[in-house]
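Q: Hi! First time asking for a complex rather than a single chain. Here are the components, and I think there are two in total. Is that enough to go on?
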Amino acid sequence: MTTPRWTRDQMAARVAADIDEGMVVNLGIGLPTLVANHIAREREVLLHSENGVLGIGPAPAAGAEDYDLINAGKQPVTLRPGGVFFHHADSFAMMRGGHLDCCVLGAFQVAANGDLANWSTGAPDAIPAVGGAMDLATGARKTFVMMEHVTKAGEARIVERCTYPVTGLACVSRIYTDLAVIDVTPRGLRVRERAEGLSHEELQRLTGAVLLA
Amino acid sequence: MIDKIVASCAAAVADVPDGACVMIGGFGTAGLPNELTEALLVQGARDLVIVNNNAGNGEHGLAALIAAGRVRKVVCSFPRQADSHHFDRAYREGRIELELVPQGNLAERIRAAGAGIGGFFTPTGYGTELARGKETREIGGRMYVLEYPIHADYAFIKAERGDRWGNLTYRMTARNFGPVMAMAATVTIATVNEVVALGALDPEAVVTPGIFVQRVVPIVRAATRAGGFGSAP
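A: Yes, that's all I need. Here is the structure of the assembled complex.
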């Protein structure tokens, strides 16, 4: 029997539902980028990108790309009316200074206490690269993680302790996966929602840390 | 008369010595001052320490400098990209040193140098491999890591408009590291797509005051190409 799970677009829509009018949000590279497509157009949400732009609009039409106007993933974007540009030190002051309401990041692993590992697999031959991951993880007021619940090999990504090098300590507040939405609380991991038809027991079996119902 | 306009990139980079620390602006391909970097390639300086967010894209600019074996060390936040093969090869062959710095710490360390700050405590990186061996302190119930400024001998940056006093404006996200790098280097060289008369830039809208800029080189505007698509979890 296959495990019932949400699609990537359903995951993105679920994250977008938690992004309220007026929030300032940074969407990380990869899966989190999809969230932008699901934020209702009438909702004024300010999207921030660490390379120095606040107020990102929809992707440009084909042929209208301008590579002086890109996001942190180096993809061409547009600017909403009211959007602004600033230099890198100001951009990271926005994060570190607690001015961003939340960031949504991809991850390799999240620990039960909210430790995040998303910058390095620790493989000895890998070339390390960190970018803004550590700044985002510790800087935004809330750090949301969006990831597949298990690895391609079926290993749990939600674990008691991260085995990959950490990006930040106790920084994750909520985890959105293809199976569940889980809050990191001082008492442990609390399941808010499960994919339709998925039992708590099955979810627990695919999770490397204790889940509170 | 103060006149910081220099006719060519070759003339602007002529005095960069071997062993210099050179900051190069740009994020992805936006704001990369490739005309200056390629002039430095021709000029011949070696044993360079380069500070940039990345470690070169494709075949041009910093990538070409690395490919030519002229870079001893790179200080950056994100060397590994789909088109960073020249850095990747040099790194795997042990021909280049890497100091990996979280992006916000990199920007703030550069800003601190320009602002005369001797060091600062940042929460970014606390408890991670990148803070190993560094001094930490609890301030107001939160843990911070001590980071030091990064000074440079030269900064190469790309601006949009400039005047002969070195006042600059930028174009969209090509601004990125330009303003902070301009502050942190002994000699800042800015390319501009347009030189304008003194007084033509709106003083309310100047982004980098000319005090931070030593040389301004007009270049022929070229559309910024795509590049630098990274890999991420």
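A: The longest strand of chain B covers residues 152-162. Let me know if you'd like any chain examined more closely.
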